[in-house]
Design a protein that fits this description.
Blueprint: H1 2-9, H2 13-20, H3 32-35, E1 57-60, H4 65-72, E2 76-78, H5 79-83, H6 86-89, H7 94-112, E3 123-124, H8 129-148, H9 158-176, E4 184-191, E5 194-201, H10 205-211, E6 218-221, H11 228-234, E7 256-261, H12 275-286, E8 293-297, H13 300-309, E9 317-320, H14 327-339, E10 344-349, E11 367-371, H15 380-393, H16 396-413, E12 424-429, H17 436-439, H18 459-476
Helix pairs in contact: 1-2, 7-8, 8-9, 12-13, 15-16
Length: about 475
């Protein structure tokens, strides 16, 4: 509707939506509209029209808020990306082209100034803030003249892209330059054709806290908000004022079979000898009942290794998620599952397009294998984050690695049971799932008192028995 109105009256449909927000009773939007540094709704005053006080804020999938907010305040500049703009800049009219190219050169040199030695490894960096600010001033002056000209500005205009990306980086650089802002650090990543300078925010809680001032009540919910103290702290919520509650699944437990196979390991040092064991276990368990299954792996590399060794039982189709999969490709697989014509095993990654935010109704999926907690890579940035979390919260490894990984694992496991009539199998494969620092992120109704209740001495027998029982329940229904 807004797009049609924009075309009819030659106005920006986005700005039209923002103007209409004052008249809306409910606004449904992405996190960026509320929490980004230049949030769109932050420009709109007096959102509450027919109610006393401020509007209320409801945050769905609230487990994503800490990482999404950190990303908002973690810009980067790549000399390679900047250099790729040169061909577009050379297509500008003569009276803009020369100055724009000189400005581009200045930007590339400023990024290069963040690299002070020949070490090829990523390292902490201390960008020359004054140089970036001066360059930002030149870009703003040029942009003002550019926009005042009679040129037709396209959607992906190169000058706009250059100026906005530089301005965004410089704005956060000023914030990160405050010595009291320990939650920011800057790294430089060399590569043969230049380098990338990146500001990382590893805790946006103080910045999120300011956003809540515009709202009367704030409610956040998700299936993965444990441990509560982690999400409260990194979401900028006052633990003294916030009430937390955990609710058991409303769906019948007897329709769900949860198992942990601790004999499998996905630790980096042990992966090579476990790829075949994982493939074999999946083959044996899926052979017990025909249907659609997801195998959720920690990474694409892990996926490729296991999938190459996997031999499906007779009658199964095997599909795999690909890197950079387009929306149409994802939808094609979902449509295949909806068709239900052929039992299918799909290899996918945790934290990807198939493992979060998708409902697999009915028989679309009858089982999920969650292979290992998908711990982030051990790299310079993650280790710097761990150091900050240890100093600030006394939980460096848990906050930097364990809890983010478990959120992805539990989201993947949650794809199976989506309604009271669904039935399915959930298998967690890795010994780490029985360790307390991992299991405390699990929903309370997964086990009675100890996570080891989910470990079986007779896996195939228990799974076969489960399928027999739910088959009887379905026939009575």
């Amino acid at each position: 509707m807004f797009r049609a109105l924009g075309e009819q009256y030659q106005v920006c449909p986005f700005e039209l939506q923002i103007d209409c927000a004052r008249e809306a009773d409910i606004i449904i939007c992405d996190y960026n509209y509320v929490f980004a540094p230049r949030s769109a709704l932050g420009r709109v005053s007096e959102l509450a029209v027919d109610q006393a006080g401020k509007p209320n804020l409801v945050i769905d999938e609230a487990h994503n808020l800490p990482s999404r907010a950190m990303d908002c305040y973690s810009p980067l500049l790549s000399s390679l990306t900047l250099e790729k703009m040169r061909d577009e800049i050379r297509k500008l009219p003569e009276h803009f082209r020369r100055e724009a190219e000189e400005l581009l050169d200045g930007c590339i040199l400023a990024v290069a100034a963040c690299h002070r030695d020949q070490n090829p490894k990523p390292k902490l960096s201390y960008p020359p803030a004054e140089r970036f600010l001066e360059q930002d001033g030149r870009l703003r002056a040029f942009l003002s003249r550019y926009l005042d000209s009679d040129l037709e500005i396209g959607r992906q205009d190169v000058v706009l892209r250059l100026c906005f990306s530089w301005s965004e980086f410089t704005e956060i650089l000023e914030l990160a330059g405050n010595p009291e802002r320990e939650e920011f650090f800057t790294t430089y990543h060399p590569h043969p054709s230049g380098g990338t300078v990146k500001i990382t925010c590893c805790d946006a809680s103080a910045l999120l806290e300011d956003c809540y001032d515009d709202y009367q009540q704030v409610v956040g919910f998700s299936a993965t908000l444990k441990p509560f103290e982690y999400y409260l702290r990194l979401s900028g919520l006052d633990s003294g004022r916030v009430r937390t509650s955990e609710f058991a699944s409303p769906f019948p437990k007897e329709r769900r079979k949860l198992l942990i196979i601790p004999q499998v390991s996905t630790r980096y040092s042990e992966r090579e000898r476990n790829y075949a064991r994982i493939a074999d276990a999946v083959q044996r368990i899926t052979a017990l009942r025909r249907g659609n299954y997801f195998i959720f792996l920690p990474s694409f590399e892990f996926l490729d290794r296991v999938m190459a060794l996997f031999q499906a039982a007779e009658g199964f189709t095997v599909l795999g998620q690909e890197r950079g999969m387009k929306g149409a490709q994802v939808e094609a697989i979902l449509e295949h599952l909806r068709g239900g014509n052929t039992p299918t095993i799909i290899f996918a990654v945790q934290g990807g397009s198939f493992s979060e935010g998708v409902d697999y109704a009915g028989e679309m999926v009858i089982g999920a294998f969650v292979v290992g907690p998908p711990l982030p890579n051990y790299d310079l940035e993650r280790e710097l984050m761990r150091g900050y979390y240890q100093r600030k919260y006394g939980a460096g490894f848990d906050y930097a690695y364990v809890i983010p990984a478990m959120a992805k694992a539990i989201q993947a496991a949650g794809r199976v049971i989506r309604s009271e009539s669904d039935r399915g199998l959930i298998v967690l494969m890795d010994g780490r799932f029985v360790e307390p620092c991992y299991s405390r992120s699990m929903p309370a109704d997964w086990f009675e008192s100890e996570v080891t209740e989910l470990v079986s001495d007779g896996i195939l027998g228990e799974v076969a028995e489960f399928w027999a029982k739910v088959g009887e329940c379905s026939s009575r229904d």
